[in-house]
Amino acid sequence: MAGIPGMKTGGGARPGNGGARPGAGRKKKDPVKIESIETTDPKRFLLEVMSSQTLDARLRIDAAKALLPYMYQRKGETGKKEEQQERSAKVSGRFAASLPPALKIIKND
After folding, report:
1. What's this model's pTM, rounded to 2 decimal places?
2. For residue 102, is it left (φ>0), alpha (ψ between -120 and 50) or beta?
3. Do 23 and 30 form a contact (C-beta atoms < 8 A)?
4. DSSP letter string over 35-94?
5. pLDDT (tens digit, 0 to 9) for every residue of the chain, 109 residues total?
6. How many angstroms separate the CA atoms of 34 and 72, rounded?
7. 88: number of CA atoms within 13 Å, CB side?
8. What angle do CA 26, 30, 34 make, to 5 degrees?
């Protein structure tokens, strides 16, 4: 059917081409069983998983990666203004502006 958009000329589906093949795709992993950790606190749970010597190293590394934002602050999370204020606070002890002189009111009786 030449001239009709979307239509191919000649043929059709070829046998053995396309579709799901047996054994194709990613292999399914066995589920990880963590029975010794009993807590409802997610941070404590990840700490226990990370420090467990019986679990797979990849699982422990993933737990450590998930804990990083809770343990350490990233350098880019503070804004430029806050960082500049922190730096100026360190230096300002020596070069800080002094207070203006106090005015004393003298009464003449």
Report:
1. 0.44
2. beta
3. no
4. -S---S-HHHHHHHHHH-SSS-HHHHHHHHHHHHHHHS--GGGS-HHHHHHHHHHHHHHH
5. 555 666 555 566 666 666 677 888 888 888 777 777 788 888 998 998 898 888 889 999 999 999 998 888 776 666 788 888 888 877 766 666 777 788 888 887 6
6. 26
7. 8
8. 140
Helix (H) or strand (E) holding 95: helix 80-95
Angle at 52 between CA 46 and CA 55, to 5 degrees: 95
Residue 67: its pLDDT value, please?
92
